[in-house]
Amino acid sequence: MFGALGRIILVGSGFVLAAVVSAFVAFRLGIERVSGSLHGDDDPFGTVLEWVWHGAHLSLYTTLLLAVLAVIIGEVARVRSALFYIAAGGIAVAAGPLLIEMQRAGGGQALPAFIWQVFATAGFAGGGVYWLIAGRRA
């Protein structure tokens, strides 16, 4: 039905839309969790700036590379399973905080526990959107 060029366009647009949905979910859940956890914090502005820096670092490097790797594996293997794309999205996005924690093992303040939940939920949503657009016709 689609030629190679049509498939490339479908995969590219599906990936971009999935990334936008993941960023939106992470932003919305992050605002909710951060506002709840900052109640009673001595320096909420400094804490929020540190979390924003970590979020930008994660999204630019680790998350994007792992998500592209999951899409390439799914496309080459012609995986049509929604479970694969949803799980791969969650793992790709939640692996970022793990890599940051491994990098900072010696010192500094540890990332809050809710960060894992926010990132995994955003990855699950992005994986589901990608499957709806491009994955089910792999």
What does this structure look like?
This protein is mostly helical and 138 residues long. The protein has one domain (4-137). 79% of the residues lie in helices and 0% in strands. The chain contains four helices and no strands. The protein has helices spanning 4-37, 44-76, 82-103, 114-133. It is elongated and about 60 Å long.
Portion in helices: over 70%
- If you compute it from the alpha carbons, what radius of gyration comes out, rounded to the nearest whole angstrom? 17 Å
Q: Helices and strands, in N-to-C order?
A: HHHH
Mean pLDDT: 78
Please count the helical segments: 4
Structural class: mainly alpha
What is the molecular shape?
Answer: elongated
Oligomer description = single chain
Low-confidence stretches: none
Number of domains: 1
Largest sheet, in brief, is: none
End-to-end CA span: 12 Å
Proportion of β residues? under 5%
Query: How many β strands by DSSP?
Result: 0
Write the layout of secondary structure elements.
Elements: H1 4-37, H2 44-76, H3 82-103, H4 114-133
Helix pairs in contact: 1-4, 2-3, 3-4
